[in-house]
Amino acid sequence: MSDLTTVELLWLEKRIENRIRFGKPVSEKIIDQHRRILSFVPGSIFAFVRWTSNDFGTILSRIDILRAITPGQRYSTVPWVSPGGESLLRLAGWPRVERVLQLIDAVESLGIDPADAAPEYWHHVHNRLSVNETPRPYTRARHQAWLRRRRMVF
After folding, report:
1. Is 41 helix (H, G, I), strand (E, B) or coil?
2. CA distances from 39 to 18, 20, 61 (A)
3. Bridge partners of 63?
4. pTM (predicted TM-score)
5. Tally of domains in the chain
6. What is the dihedral of CA 114, 10, 33, 44, to 10 degrees?
7. For all residues of the chain together, what is the average pLDDT?
8. How big is the CA angle at 96 (ends 129 and 73), to the nearest 5 degrees?
9. Mind telling me which Pfam families this protein's record contains (predicted)?
């Protein structure tokens, strides 16, 4: 059994789109023209976006920001993710998903890869968006503090 977390991506035009918004996969396997499998090492953070529609419009919009687990660690199950991941953020509904995508863009505009941002930030975003508050923006100072804490702990 592999220690990697795998995510199956599927794209069926105008029907289903499962994609990675950010993250650093260590491998990619192409199944066919519509499906790929990406693998992530334990501890890596990635955003998984799912969208589904039918003849009447969108029926599902969801974003999960997950940390790939280490063997023996507790995890949340997420469709298309094996075995699952530590859930840092899980939101459904287009307005909330769109807001998270905007926040990801804002982190990237700072020149910071969202996969390297403090995991606590994604928890903060989740808690604030769940009660319709505006989360504090991620800043370079906050990122530097996270990097210093990480160096001290690891």
Report:
1. coil
2. 15, 11, 23
3. 49, 91
4. 0.90
5. 1
6. 30
7. 91
8. 70
9. DUF2840
> What is the domain range of residue 60?
5-153
Contacts of 152 (CB under 8 A, 6+ apart): none
Copy the structure tokens of residue 78.
Answer: 């997420």
Distance CA 102, CA 78 (A): 23
Determine the length of the chain. 154
Alpha helices in the chain (DSSP H): 94-109, 119-130, 140-153
CA distance 102 to 108: 10
> Taking residues 59-72, what's their average pLDDT?
94
Whether the CB-CB separation of 89 and 123 falls below 8 Å is answered with: yes
Backbone angles phi, psi at 111, to 5 degrees: 80, 20
Q: How many whole angstroms separate alpha carbon 53 and alpha carbon 60?
A: 7
